[in-house]
Amino acid sequence: MTSPVGEATGTEAIRLAEEAVNRFAATLHISSDVLIHTAPDAHTAEVTWNAHMTHVHLDSTLFTVGCVYDARFRRTDGAWRVSRMGVRAVWSTGEPPVVGASVEEARR
Fold first, then answer.
1. pLDDT digits (tens, 9 = 90+) for 62-102
2. Burial 58-96 (b: 16+ CB within 10 A, else e)
3. Is the torsion defined by CA of 49, 20, 90, 60 positive or negative?
4. How many CA atoms lie within 13 A of 5 on its CB side?
5. Is-contact 67 87, C-beta < 8 A?
6. From CA 39, how far away is CA 46, in angstroms rounded?
7. Is 33 left (phi over 0), alpha (psi -120 to 50) or beta?
8. Residues with Cβ < 8 Å from 17, sequence gap 6 or more?
9. Per-residue pLDDT tens for 37-67?
10. pTM, to two decimals
């Protein structure tokens, strides 16, 4: 996974996403315009979608961002699994979280 707050693989990607969300009092992520392109072998798919994400800082100020997600999924044992995912900010308003600060520092 590649995101504005860092890069990680496997279960570390889940930890990274959790850490990013825990920097805020609340978040709301709305996704739309999902495009799926399945490979001819029907075992991989490239997927893109847009997201509008609102984040509420602990002091109640807002950080809002419009992003584009780009992912690859692969079919294994009849189930689809994420093999790559990236998110790229296209625009934002408000102050983003401090990248590199610990969650405890961000929550102060």
1. 999 999 999 999 999 889 999 999 999 999 999 988 766 55
2. eeeeebebebebebebeeeeeeeeeeebebeeeeeeeee
3. positive
4. 21
5. yes
6. 8
7. left
8. 1, 3
9. 999 988 999 999 999 999 999 999 999 999 9
10. 0.80
